[in-house]
């Protein structure tokens, strides 16, 4: 095992040498909510350049993250599946929102000035004819329309309505625009990074409290409840993702809600959170040994820590997601393990808990400054007994800057 | 205004006469988590009857609520858009899950015994060929496959992968199965009702505390944070939806997160929550006048209360969603108002914050016992100054049983 060269709060010389800038240690001042209009103007200008390169006349947006990306409209109302929301982003000009009546007042508070709405719900014509009319008015009789259709995308409108829309728009053609939205969203602005960093700071502070929260005998569900409350108290807006596991020596199910089983000496406890501030996620976990860690668990943990270091060492503009994967995988395999069932060793992060790219052997996305990424090495000590470790960083010109406060080098023990 | 005939905790004679059974007042004992296998067997049997009637050989499920409905798999991991999850529900036989590797351990803990998984993420073939092979193996060379394509549904897989799947399944045809899933999910089992009732009890208790939490001068965001923490402390698993507004004399934006504006005397404060216990939502709101209510706000509130009574009076098996709408609308219009911009006056409720049906003039869904519904009359006192009121109930043979503890008859004042 290599020595930890990643500092918590101070910039060590060897950390700078390794290019791993320290995590922010400023006092917890929440970044301003929302964005200046210039942020949306920049996003639009970037989108329009990419659309022109791709030969698209417009993007048709139906999903929460993309609608918010271009408009700034933030709402939990997307929980309701009843009504579709549409945004038309033309290759030239400003976006037009076509939204249900309930959405008019909040969208009118954003920078969007062309808003059309229909009385909704109205399943017999749920915005479809209004959208088609709007598209004809703005784009004319023929247009190449981009709709995200590729990996990690969905269409948030009923399939039958999408078919009806296409039927109403003879002369229009629909093309996959995944690369456009992916290119835009993968690289974060400083204002976005600040929000993610803030969320990471809140979660880092709460993880530091866990040795005082998680004690043997307590049901896991109560520990998770206490963690969630602490995250909110410290300024998180929401905790849409708080999962984990506790099992003797390691765990294999990393995505389930906590059960009533009491935490037991010998367990490895893992808590993973996607906490949100102003619509931006952190996504990292921490592991704890309940009582003295056994050798296997300690070695598994140390391997994951070393794998993370290996990825931080090579995370530079020009490296790829695949490079990060292979750096981590090599450490895991060299230490005698197989990678866990997560299927990747980290991913993008931002308005969603997980975003493109994926650190897998086949994802050759080239890393550029402004990308916010997780490193999430996992391994199986034996079948059904695994461990996963995660950190968040933003890539800078000279290397990674940690956003999560680095986990301890050795598996922390809760006594 | 009519007198309130709806009791809080006791069964009044006139309430029974009106068929409005009292809200549960039992002590707060959380229902057992999960469901017995018999619940899933019943759901499958009902689904298979409906599929046979509709001439479908199988349902292809991709969405969280439907996957959970048939399997019991509950996870916040659906937050990650990277990986699709598939469930094949055949018209004869047991369901087969086709899930990413990370999903194998938790799905293996459900009653599903046929689980296939692929190493994911793998965007070049994200489960599509495995799903196609599985469908051919189970359904043979030709089959009529039901996919929800209608109102309130989406397909949770990339469009391009759906097209590829259809290309791989020559001989298969794909048909809208919205009516099948809608018929199933609209009518709740007693075990489901118990979970919703429990969530409603928790939220009712917390709403009772709001006069002590919401005081003039406090920023709205801090009030909402305190409410969220209180909901968690009292046993809620999550608060995915907590929205509202506070504005002088009434509000018009009912779906936005709270801002930093301090609560001010003369405001009407509305807090609306979709709180969750074991995967089941409540969805109701409460209004409060900060300081003495002005006449217009008090009259608007009383009208909404009376509109709710009008709907409770006629909520019987055999009535329709449209009947509920018209009963509420009549009271609103007779009192000199227009309905608000919500577009409907209530809806279904369960595994999602909102479900079919919608109380609109054109939704003629026939109400049957076991449906859990909201009544959500809204009105505008003047443009931009509105109010919305909401209650939750389950329909019984003899009428509605309130699940939310009824709001006070008069707009409560916080002094």
UniProtKB/TrEMBL annotation, chains A, B:
* Pfam families (UniProt xref): Creatinase_N (PF01321), Peptidase_M24 (PF00557)
Q: Is the Cell cycle keyword given for this protein?
A: no
Keyword tags: Aminopeptidase, Hydrolase, Protease
Q: Where do the Creatinase N-terminal domain residues begin and end? A: 43-187
- Keyword rRNA processing in annotation: no
Question: Entry's CDD domains?
Answer: APP_MetAP
List the molecular function annotations (GO) for this entry. Answer: aminopeptidase activity; metalloexopeptidase activity
Limits of the Peptidase M24 domain: 194-395
Q: Which PANTHER family match?
A: AMINOPEPTIDASE, XAA-PRO AMINOPEPTIDASE P-RELATED
Protein name stated in the entry = Aminopeptidase P family protein
In its UniProt entry, the species of origin is given as: Arthrobacter oryzae
């Amino acid at each position: 095992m290599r020595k930890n060269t990643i500092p918590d709060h101070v910039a060590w010389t060897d950390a700078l040498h390794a290019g791993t800038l320290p995590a922010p240690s400023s006092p917890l001042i929440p970044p301003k909510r929302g964005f200046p209009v210039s942020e949306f103007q920049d996003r639009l200008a970037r989108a329009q350049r990419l659309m022109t390169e791709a030969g698209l006349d417009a993007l048709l947006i139906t999903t929460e993250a993309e609608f918010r990306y271009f408009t700034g409209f933030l709402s939990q109302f997307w929980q309701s599946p009843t009504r579709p929301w549409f945004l038309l982003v033309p290759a030239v000009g400003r976006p037009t929102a076509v939204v249900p009546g309930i959405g008019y007042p909040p969208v009118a508070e954003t920078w969007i000035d062309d808003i059309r709405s229909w009385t909704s719900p109205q399943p017999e014509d749920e915005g479809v004819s209004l959208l088609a009319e709007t598209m004809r008015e703005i784009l004319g009789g023929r247009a190449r329309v981009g709709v995200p259709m590729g990996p990690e995308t969905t269409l948030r409108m009923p399939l039958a309505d999408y078919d009806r829309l296409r039927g109403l728009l003879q002369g229009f053609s629909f093309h996959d625009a995944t690369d456009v939205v992916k290119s835009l969203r993968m690289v974060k602005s400083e204002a976005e990074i600040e929000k993610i960093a803030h969320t990471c700071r809140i979660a880092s502070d709460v993880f530091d409290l866990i040795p005082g929260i998680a004690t043997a005998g307590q049901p896991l569900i109560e520990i998770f409840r206490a963690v969630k409350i602490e995250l909110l108290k410290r300024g998180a807006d929401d905790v849409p993702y708080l999962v984990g596991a506790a099992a003797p020596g390691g765990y294999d199910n990393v995505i389930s809600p906590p059960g009533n089983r009491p935490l037991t000496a010998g367990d490895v406890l893992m808590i993973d959170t996607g906490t949100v501030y102003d619509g931006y996620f952190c996504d990292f976990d921490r592991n704890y040994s309940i009582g003295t860690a056994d050798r296997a668990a300690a070695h598994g943990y140390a391997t994951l820590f070393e794998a993370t270091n290996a990825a931080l060492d090579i995370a530079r503009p020009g490296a790829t997601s695949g490079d990060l994967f292979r750096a981590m995988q090599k450490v895991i395999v060299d230490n005698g393990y197989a990678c866990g069932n997560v299927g990747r060793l980290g991913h993008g992060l931002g308005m969603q808990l997980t975003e493109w790219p994926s650190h897998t052997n086949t994802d050759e996305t080239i890393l550029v400054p402004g990308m916010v990424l997780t490193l999430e090495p996992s391994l199986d000590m034996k079948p059904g007994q695994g461990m996963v470790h995660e950190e968040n960083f933003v890539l800078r010109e000279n290397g990674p800057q940690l956003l999560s406060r680095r986990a301890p080098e050795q598996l922390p023990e809760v006594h």
